[in-house]
Amino acid sequence: METRQPALVVVGAGHAGGELAMAARQSGWPGSITLIGEEPGVPYQRPPLSKAYLCGQATEADIQLRPAAAYETAAVRRIEGVRVASIDRAARQVLLTDGRALPYDKLALCLGGRPRPLSCAGIDPHSPPANLLYLRTLRDARAIGEHLQPGKRIVIVGGGYVGLEVAASAVGRGALVTVLEAQPRVLARVAGPELSRFYQSVHAAHGVDIRTNAAIAAVNCEAGRIVCLTCGDGSTLEADAVVAGIGMIANVEIANAAGLDAANGLEVDENGMTADPDIFAAGDCTRYQHPLYGREVRIESVPNALEQARAIAGWLGGKPKPNRSVPWFWSDQYDLKLQMAGLATGYDRCVIRGSFEAHSFCAFYLAGDRVLAVDAVNRPAEFMAVRRALARPLVVDAAKIADESIALRELLAPGA
Ligand SMILES: Cc1cc2nc3c(=O)[nH]c(=O)nc-3n(C[C@H](O)[C@H](O)[C@H](O)COP(=O)(O)OP(=O)(O)OC[C@H]3O[C@@H](n4cnc5c(N)ncnc54)[C@H](O)[C@@H]3O)c2cc1C
């Protein structure tokens, strides 16, 4: 008698979904693998969208995660440009917007997120201004790129990593750039004040006008385009285009509608399993208890998406590889290669090793003598060493960290 092959259906063809489909095959998943993505084309890397691609230093072909042929070779069937509209858990099938129904034995939701929309007086959410732009997809990046021309006035709302990277790329292409940040400093949600001050000064040196405590009260539009923004203090700013980088909303609606616990992210365990043992999830759309930090996290980073995807693939292939990875991330702006590892929440002091002036330093975030996190600028070797050590967890002689006459590896050694 013929036995039916089990079907793995992966929804979302971004970093997590693309990796999971391929890694499941490598891990020995015996059945079919279908990767469904609403975006057209093969899965691509998002980080270059605000960096090399926007600067004109990378093409669309350069940023593909893998060539289309790699999926064919691995017998991963790709369905592109189609959305999964709903999940029928009772019938174990997903329903596509083109009317198809696909049965699954195991389902993986790698749905990512979408930009948080800018909301203020003058913006009709049903008919947003044509020059109000966001950055999540290649299509978004193409649209922003068209505005990055010499002399164009680009206003960036939000001084987080995406906003600051777009600012660096935009001034590099000759645009006149202003960043409006509602908090008293840029990177307020993700880095300490020392790093914020450093980045503000570097951007100012490149001609970016960074305005903090600058919440937007209203936009004035003419013929469906923003021409001027008004801040809470009454100041105004003319603009040719506005790029809003004010965070992400996890795409969890289809999971919620299917009865899974998906408020601000779909809850998963260290193998990526949801409350339904046949449904897994990975990447920006998930939240989980982090074993090192003892609290729930929702991490928006490529390494996290890849680690979670590999954990699911390991589980499905019968070789569990639970995700216990130290969160990490990077950001490229000008000549600065910033790498961050760990989670700084709850730190009581920040110790700097190196020099801001030389654009080469590590910022250690400590709670007592425990290192919770590190931000490294142009120090890849030290970053790698600290990132690895953070998995222990890492306790150091904090008084010695700033002393560069002592090799970092001595300070990081267990029991040092
Ligand atoms: C501009 C930018 C710069 C970034 N820079 C960095 C960086 O330097 N370093 C770093 O670590 N991280 C960076 N990130 C974050 C990183 O890109 C994300 O963490 C990563 O893409 C998460 O992968 P994911 O697979 O969870 O989501 P995504 O890559 O967003 O993929 C999700 C996919 O699922 C699709 N989808 C959603 N719902 C459905 C549905 N119902 N049916 C079918 N398809 C669906 C979406 O269209 C999307 O293609 C950056 C992000 C952006 C936007």
Question: Would you kindly provide a brief summary of this structure?
Answer:
This protein has 416 residues and is α/β, with parallel strands linked by helices. It is built from 10 helices and 27 strands.
Taking pLDDT < 50 over at least 5 consecutive residues as the criterion, the unreliable ranges are none
The gyration radius over C-alpha positions equals 23 Å
Q: Using the 3D structure, state the CATH architecture of the largest domain.
A: 3-Layer(bba) Sandwich
Overall geometric form: globular
What would CATH call the homologous superfamily of the largest domain?
FAD/NAD(P)-binding domain
The number of helices is 10
The distinct bound ligands, ions and cofactors come out as: flavin-adenine dinucleotide
User: What is the CATH class designation of the largest domain?
Assistant: Alpha Beta
Overall number of structural domains:
3
**Percent of residues in helices:** 10-25%
Largest sheet, if any?
A: 6 strands, antiparallel
Task: Explain how this protein is built.
This protein has three domains: 7-114 and 249-316, FAD/NAD(P)-binding domain (3-Layer(bba) Sandwich); 132-246, 3-Layer(bba) Sandwich (FAD/NAD(P)-binding domain); 335-412, Enolase-like, domain 1 (2-Layer Sandwich). The protein is built from ten helices and 27 strands. The longest helix is centred in the last third of the chain and has 15 residues, at 302-316. It has helices at 15-26, 52-55, 68-73, 138-147, 161-172, 193-205, 253-257, 302-316, 380-389, 408-412; strands spanning 7-11, 32-37, 76-80, 84-88, 93-96, 101-103, 106-109, 113-115, 132-133, 153-157, 176-180, 209-211, 216-222, 225-231, 236-238, 241-244, 248-250, 266-267, 279-281, 286-290, 295-297, 328-333, 336-342, 349-355, 360-367, 370-377, 394-395. The strands form seven sheets. Strands 22, 23, 24, 25, 26 and 27 form a six-stranded antiparallel β-sheet that branches. It has 416 residues and is an alpha/beta fold. β25 and β26 form a beta hairpin. The protein is globular and about 65 Å long. α1 (15-26) packs parallel to α8. Residues 11-17, 36-39, 46-47, 49-50, 83-84, 110-112, 135-136, 162, 251, 254, 283-285, 300-303, 305, 329-331 line the site of flavin-adenine dinucleotide (FAD).
